[in-house]
């Protein structure tokens, strides 16, 4: 256990991005290459909107911006390629440690399950799993913390702000209506 | 074995409650096609509390914007037809097909209520060198390609009114400057960025009262009691009678297949909402005409509206696809 | 003195005062949670306060508005996740301060400065509303376009590290903002024929993903490290600190009022422009910008709260909303039987003065709630990361969904979260992406309006710029700022001035 060193630019603060200015981090070249490829694709797509129809055409500004993207991405790629590789870092340790990969996968799973399963069950699974994995504490603590906070979030968003997250398998609306009727004192007809 | 038993029990319980519970037994989602603060949003938020009272249920309003309302329309069209998801929209989905914005329109829906309709009005900035419609036409003819008309994109009210002028007067040589909605366009009008703007009377009325906006002509076959001094367009040119009265409208819709008793209950509730005195005053103050029609009457209104508008735009060359392709008959055929 | 009586309405009726206070308190928390926006809260309040009288309803809304604009800075400082778009610039220097354990100081300064900015905004509203709204109306499409270009040049001050990567990020942001059906012609842009892309990508989803999820993923590297202990002994900044930053805060507040009063631009752009301004005029910050400079907090926070008063200016004088929240308030006035428009101030001046009074009280409550309860807030950062990280992720998901009730936005948010994580690691700044998305439509729509108005004629377009004093000033600023970012300028400056030159 050691405190975070604020002087160490590890990408945790946006104002000081985590790149190394004079060395190439593992995977950086591939990332720059991917950005260039994506920019080229977008430029082609922007051309397809309206071509060189008119200055006021819907495709004019997109074409100009994607052109800027292509040029800058190409320059970044060139510069990156010229930098020496940082031998002290590895992709698996410094860029994509197992935990990050696991969480990225968990988030994707969350997105897939959200609609069919519904907000409450999916979030409960995610929170319990994530907290348990990260904290390595007992089940009672994990369940209490994660389910407790989930209920608070749900109450704020669902009841106060009436944001209707996908209900999925739980008959959420019916339950709420039940409480609403109880509160108003008249039984459901 | 036990699981199957429990499942069967659960299913039984569910169908039993479904049969016993009367609509609405949970909250209803009202999907508003436009963003918070717009006129559709305001109208829907104003009528909903009155409807809830009659209905004895809760309607949770949600704004779902994007793709000129097509996102919301597709969302509700794809929702279960159980009366728990309603679409609260304006007139423009009737033009989606011919504008190439989608393959659905209100044909996929049961109109629960067409709440009200607006009257278009042609307005100009306070410094415009003309004071009425005739003067404007003269000015346009004297300065071809110089007068800037505010617009809200293809299919919007200004484009329809401009197409009407085009059809009646022939060869309207103006610049159409597109804005996000009539609010921003009227702002631009007051700042001099556009010269003339076809708008809904209700949105322009306060500006007119304050003398910040100059009314040119009301686009109707008769005058409007909110602006008794402003002439209507047929006073200038009787040829407009072919296309008028025409105007945007607000309506509430449920997907096709919604049970009849639910539709009846909702239609009744919205009809009662329209009748509410507070709502009526609110709408009247803004220059809207209350309608409150539903069922076949609403369907007939929608069909007529779509035919007239679609062909008008088609003849003006503003469409992506001919109305014919979608079986929209030319009016009078 | 009926004006005074109207202003004091809110104070003399305890019920109204209570509602303003309640609203402000709720607003601070609504603003602090990314995804819960003031716009959302106020539009829900329309239905909620439907049967109320107009004064109580407006009191509550004003409280939420004032508190919410301020609240966004909390999470920006503590977690590097701006609670609202107008707090993006606050994160740039606020979070580095929290990393040093100075979150208390940062929040204290932010609160006092928001208070000062808020008052300047209200002052201008009360004293010069008609004047400012006349000025705001004078902005033509080409002026808005020049303003957007001026905004895009901020990329320079938002990208520490590589400017090249910053420009790329900014252009990417503009492209993201263009996705979906073009609102002016309905042409599909970057949709690749996918229906889910037609609605475009919500910029709040991009912001939450880039700042929230990518930050949370980054924090996974430090799960086992101790949280930074926060010193919260000195919260209220000393008088000398306030006095030192007063000149800057006056300048940035003016930026806030004007940008806030322009229909179509709001606190988010104002805060970023103010940050850029602070960077230009501050010669010797105690700490470099981006590493916890006090000026980097003062500028955006005064500007975004001054923009609140600014946004009410066109609303009260013309019935034209200054931003999304005032748009909804216009709807609320209308529902309560008033007719918002240019006649409102003439027919019902009491309403105008009542709103001024309510804003003043909301501003005072903001100071009160801002300076208390910090201890509780800083506890958030001291929570174990094993709980904090999953919570941030879940809140990001719900927040992204809540913006437009769309699961698609959740997918985008997650996608940009992962993408942002890589951007962070390879030294691409994230600020310019958000800047690009915010400015995308302002730039694109107004460029097209401007060039359509001039019949596609570039000659006439430039003639228009040169002949209008307002456009000319904006155009010259654009040129000067652009040149000042190129190496040529640095050389010329060293030779001619021998010290830093100033524009604006």
Structure description:
The complex is a heterotrimer of chains A (189), B (333) and C (504). Chain A has helices at residues 28-50, 60-82, 91-95, 98-117, 119-135, 139-160, 172-184. Chain A is mostly helical. Chain A is flat, with a radius of gyration of 25 Å. With 333 residues, chain B is an alpha/beta fold. In chain B, the strands form 3 sheets. Chain B has a 6-stranded mixed sheet with strand order 2-1-3-10-4-11, with helices on both faces. In chain B, α2 (39-55) links the parallel β1 (28-32) and β2 (59-63). Chain B is globular and about 65 Å long. Chain C has 504 residues and is mainly α. In chain C, strands 1-2 form a two-stranded antiparallel ribbon. In chain C, α18 crosses α19. Chains A and C meet through α1, α2, α4, α5 and α6 of A and α3, α5, α9, β2 and α10 of C.
Give a quick set of tags describing it.
heterotrimer; A: 189 residues; mainly alpha; disordered N terminus; C: 504 residues; two-stranded antiparallel ribbon; 23 helices; 2 strands; globular; disordered C terminus
Strand and helix layout:
The complex is a heterotrimer of chains A (about 190), B (about 325) and C (about 500).
Chain A lengths: L27 H23 L9 H23 L8 H5 L2 H20 L1 H17 L3 H22 L11 H13 L5
Chain B lengths: L1 H19 L7 E5 L6 H17 L3 E5 L6 H9 L6 E6 L5 H4 L9 E9 L2 E5 L8 H10 L5 E4 L5 H13 L5 E4 L3 H10 L4 E5 H9 L4 E5 L30 E7 L4 H16 L1 H9 L3 E5 L1 H21 L18
Parallel strand pairs in B: 1-2, 1-3, 6-7
Antiparallel strand pairs in B: 3-10, 4-10, 4-11, 5-8, 5-9
Chain C lengths: L1 H11 L1 H19 L5 H11 L5 H26 L8 H12 L3 H35 L3 H12 L2 H4 L4 H16 L1 E2 L6 E2 L13 H17 L19 H23 L5 H15 L13 H24 L5 H12 L8 H4 L1 H23 L2 H9 L2 H20 L2 H19 L5 H23 L4 H10 L1 H16 L2 H10 L8
Antiparallel strand pairs in C: 1-2
> How many structural domains of chain C?
1
Number of helices of chain C: 23
- Assembly form of the protein: heterotrimer
Separate helix tally of chain A:
7
Taking the sheet with the most strands of chain C, its summary is: 2 strands, antiparallel
- SSE order of chain C, as H and E? HHHHHHHHHEEHHHHHHHHHHHHHH
Mean pLDDT of chain C: 85
- The amount of beta strand of chain C, in percent, is under 5%
Count of β-strands of chain A:
0
Q: Main β-sheet of chain A: number of strands, strand sense, barrel status? A: none
Strand content of chain A: under 5%
Whole-number average pLDDT of chain A? Answer: 81
Q: What shape does the CA trace of chain C take?
A: globular
Sequence stretches where pLDDT stays below 50 over 5 or more residues of chain C:
499-504
User: What is the total tally of β strands of chain C?
Assistant: 2
Helix content of chain A: 55-70%
Q: From the alpha-carbon coordinates, what is the Rg of chain A to the nearest angstrom?
A: 25 Å
Low-confidence stretches of chain A: 1-16
Q: Outline of chain A, from the CA principal axes?
A: flat
Instruction: Work out the helicity level of chain C.
Output: over 70%
